[in-house]
Amino acid sequence: MRKTILLFMSIFLILGLTSCANKEKKEEKVLKMGFVPLNNSETLIEDVKPISEALSKKLGIKVEAFTASNYVGVVEGIGSGSVDFGFMPPFAYLLAKEQSNANPILTAKGKTGMPGYYSYLYTTKNSGIKFVLDLKGKKVAFVDPSSTSGYIYPGAMIIESGLNLEKDVTTIFSGGHDKSLQLLLNGDVDAIGSYDGIAKRYEKDFPSAKDELVEIKESDLIPGITIVSSSSMDKELTEKLKQALKEIESDKETMELFKKLFNITGFSEVDENSYKKVEDTAKIMNVDLKKVK
């Protein structure tokens, strides 16, 4: 009888411990941090690991990085709640805001310390192209239909010059700023649309870019990369994340990585009015925020 009682006690103890372990495992919170493919998405997850770890330490919650094969993938992740927060260009943020009420947390400062950056139309020094109108009949590489500096702004500059983006130039989408640069340097396209400082950003991979690249035209100032949270993310946690990012500004090592990977030098409060220009530029491109998928 005594053995039977001990056996039942052992079984209940094991079941109790298993239940507690499963409960703890179930309740373990993991935040998914999304990035659009600003550079090679195959290595980006490993590259941003120190950023994930720094945020995990400050939040007391495990943070895991996620990158999609295209910009809309992160927008959809934010919308579904499978991505809790993300770093995305302003146009991608506007898509997330329009389609799923995503919330802007902070705007990143660029290399000049301003909460913004510029887009350029680039060519090579021996292309013979000096003005936007010279792109007529040429081949132009853009990054992604939802890329602010890699399509929306440079595309609008071409349209505003008087050229028809569909009839006067041949356009292709490369899938990444680094890939566009490679196409240009290889002579596969005549021009590209990308952000300021692309030659320095990819100096290691494309050392000739510094001497080869020529700017055709510069855009207006674009709001910086926007840190966006899903509408399903807890407000208290969102505020905690905002504070953590601000504190990371004093973490020299992590900020060096932000600068190296994304040209981010700090964070500032969001100025919603600055996104109006992005919306206006999207209209020039006949882009409907509700229909982009």
UniProtKB/TrEMBL annotation:
| Source superkingdom | Bacteria
PROSITE patterns in the cross-refs = PROKAR_LIPOPROTEIN
Q: Name the keywords, alphabetized.
A: Signal
Q: Which Pfam families match?
A: Phosphonate-bd (PF12974)
The family classification in the record reads: Belongs to the phosphate/phosphite/phosphonate binding protein family.
Q: What is this protein called?
A: Phosphate/phosphite/phosphonate ABC transporter substrate-binding protein
Task: Tell me the lineage of the source organism.
Answer: Bacteria, Bacillati, Bacillota, Bacilli, Bacillales
